[in-house]
Design goal:
The protein is α/β, with parallel strands linked by helices. It has ten helices and 16 strands. The strands form three sheets. Strands 3, 5, 6, 7, 8, 15 and 16 form a seven-stranded mixed β-sheet that branches. The radius of gyration is 19 Å and the shape is globular.
Length: 307
Amino acid sequence: MRAVRIHRFNDTPRIEDAPTPNVETGEVLVRVQAAALNPLDALVVSGFAQHFFDIKLPITLATDFAGVVERVGLGVTQWKAGDRVIAWADAGVSGGLADFAVVPASACVALPDALSAAQGSAIPTAGITAWHALFSSAKLKAGETVLIHGAAGGVGGFAVQFAHMAGARVIATASGDGLALARDLGADEVIDYQARDFTAAVSGVDVVLDLVGGETQIRSYSVMRPGGRLVSTAMPPDEALAKAHGVEATIFYAKPYADRLGDLVATIVDNGLMVVIDSQVPMDAFDEAWARQTSGRARGKIVVSLS
């Protein structure tokens, strides 16, 4: 089968021939139809993800994918051949950028008829990160104001919609065509960070969702109310700086939780939320997808189609 793999850290990911994986007890073999890229894939390639995951090389990229169950292992009763599923693999083991992928049966949720395989593959990491960063970590409530940095990216696109749906006032930072996208997703105010200093335009914010890091995170403390909450997915906050401004600051990393993923997929479908796809390319054009992913300019998710 075809697979996009690395054999050493800092390798350039390449399409190569690989053996079709065996299906063990409790696992399912999925014929992959679409796989979505995440910033996490770049961290796996660089080796940085070793700080959080036990990575076994060689490894196939893409923790998020969707397709059709080809075969089930012993003890699997919740899935059968032909079922459409979304899978969320652990970053330490081989993922879904391949014609076939094996995951624990518990790592899959049903792919609803309302979603394409591409849309399904785009949800797991970005959707769970957005939801739980906002509501489990930041504890965002209706009526509060949230400032979302990087609102037009994969996580940001979900976060704007989730916060709007929850009744929060949403202020988004973006640039270029991301400005219109953030408005379309439900942001109440959109700030072009290339043309306008957000610290001069915003104050008294209850929650900051930092998807950017660096100076953007540091400058965000000045626009928060005392007792506000900052959650970052980009870099660990400076605890001393947060304390000096009288706010709470934490970092959030999403880990695969299929039970939570099923609820989230249902929320997206039931509320007619958008799954924003920046681009969708065939497997043979993986290099194009990788260049787009690592550019940091994607609007939504980048998906590789395998069938």
